[in-house]
């Protein structure tokens, strides 16, 4: 699904950026350019970032014997 029409950024590209090491909306924005033109996509992009980080945190907490926390900024 397209999140950012100005730059053609999809939810998959946002998730890939997180899987490649981005751990905040700011880092995803710098990596993909999402939200840097008109800004109308920022809320949805933040939601995708937050959901993806939560999924990763849940998966990692299940795999590790101790809790890991992320901060979605
Ligand atoms: S729709 Fe993303 S910056 Fe315009």
Please provide a written account of the structure:
The protein has 73 residues and is mostly helical. It has a single domain (2-63), classed as Arc Repressor Mutant, subunit A, CATH 1.10.10.1100. Helix content is 53%, strand content 7%. The protein has helices at 11-19, 25-32, 42-63, and strands spanning 2-4, 9-10. It has a two-stranded antiparallel sheet. Strand 1 (2-4) and strand 2 (9-10) form a beta hairpin. The protein is elongated and about 45 Å long. The mean pLDDT is 91. The structure holds FE2/S2 (inorganic) cluster. FE2/S2 (inorganic) cluster binds next to loops.
Bound molecule kinds, no repeats: FE2/S2 (inorganic) cluster
Largest sheet: 2 strands, antiparallel
Average pLDDT, all residues? 91
- At CATH level 3, the topology is Arc Repressor Mutant, subunit A
Architecture in CATH?
A: Orthogonal Bundle
The CATH superfamily is known as: BFD-like [2Fe-2S]-binding domain
Shape: elongated
Rg, alpha carbons? 13 Å
H/E topology pattern: EEHHH
Distance between the first and last residues' Cα: 22 Å
Our count of domains comes out at: 1
% residues in beta strands: 5-15%
Computed structural class: mainly alpha
What is the top-level CATH class?
A: Mainly Alpha
Question: How are the SSEs placed, and which strands pair?
Answer:
Elements: E1 2-4, E2 9-10, H1 11-19, H2 25-32, H3 42-63
Antiparallel strand pairs: 1-2
Bound molecules: FE2/S2 (inorganic) cluster.
């Amino acid at each position: 699904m397209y999140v950012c029409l100005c730059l053609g950024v999809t939810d998959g590209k946002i998730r890939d950026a997180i899987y490649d090491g981005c751990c905040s909306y700011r880092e995803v924005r710098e990596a993909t350019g999402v939200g840097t033109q008109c800004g109308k996509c920022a809320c949805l992009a933040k939601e995708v970032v937050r959901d993806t980080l939560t999924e990763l945190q849940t998966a990692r907490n299940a795999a590790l014997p101790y809790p890991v926390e992320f901060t979605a900024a």
